[in-house]
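Page 42, continued from yesterday. The earlier attempt failed because a stray header line got pasted into the input along with the sequence. Redoing it now with the clean sequence only.
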Amino acid sequence: GPAAGGARRPLALEALGEAGELAEELWGAGLPGDLPELEPECRHLLAAFAEGSAALTGCLGRRARPVRLCQACHRHYRRLLAQYGNIVRAVGNSSESHNCAKSILTSDRLQIVVTLSVFFNETWEAANCANCLKNNSEELSNSTVEFLDLFNKSLTCFEHNFQGQTVYLSPNNYTEVCKNCNETYKMLSDLYNNLQRMNRQGSESGHSTHLCIDVEDAMNITRKLWSKTFNCSVPCSDTVPVIAVSSFILFLPIVFYLSSFLHSKQKKRILILPKRIQSNASLVNIQEKYS
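This time it went through. C-alpha cells are written below.
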C-alpha cells in the first residue's frame, strides 16, 4: 500500500547514498587496476574535444542550407583537429599524460571520440572544403573569395530588378532581370567554368575533381534562379559553330536530292539526244530519195 511504498523510497535513497559513500572510499583507497575515472588532465582534454565537437556540429547544422560549411566552419574544424591531436599525443607535463590517449580513445568498444573524429573528417572531405581554402585551411582562397563576391552581386541584382519590375509586369515576365543582370551572371558562370577546368587539371595529382560544396551549391542556386525562376538565357560563345554545323547537316539531304535530280535530268537529255540526231538523219535520207 502507500505506507509500504513510502517505506521503500527512503530505503532506496539511503542505499543510493551508501553506494556513493562506498565509491568515494574506494576511489580514495587507490585500488589497483584500470578504473573508469580519468585523471584531471585527461578530463580536461576530453572536455575540450567535447566542446569542439559541439561547436562544429552546431556550425554544420546551421550552415546546411544554403550550404556554407567550408567558409563558416573551417575554424571550428581546425580547432577540433588540434584538440584530437592533443589527445592522441597526450600533450602534458604530468606523468599521467601518456595514459590519456589509451583511456579516452581505446578503453571501450564504442570508442566514441574516435567515431566522432572519423565522422567529422569524412564530412569535411566529402564537402571538398580543401579546394576552396588556402594556408593549411586557415582562410578562403582568392578564387573562392572572388566567386562568392560575384555570387552575392548576382543575388543582389536579381533581388533589385525583381522588386523593381513586379509592380508593372506579370509574374512570368522578368525581362529587367535578364537584361540588367546578364553581364554579372555571365561573369559568374565563366569564373565557375574556369575553376572547374583548373580543378580537373589538378585532379591528376590526386585531388578531387569536385569544387568545394559551398561553390557548387551557390552556382546551382544561381542557375536555378536564372533559368527556371526568371526564365533567362545567356548566348553561348559556341552557338555560331553549333548552328553552322547543324544547318549544314540539315541541308545535306536537300543538296543530295537536288544534285541527284539534276544529274538524272542531264543524263536523260544525253540519252535522248542521239535519237533526235538519228531521226534528223532519216529525214534527210527520205528527202534525198524523193528528190
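Notes: The two ends are 156 Å apart (CA to CA).
Reminder to self: strip header lines before submitting.
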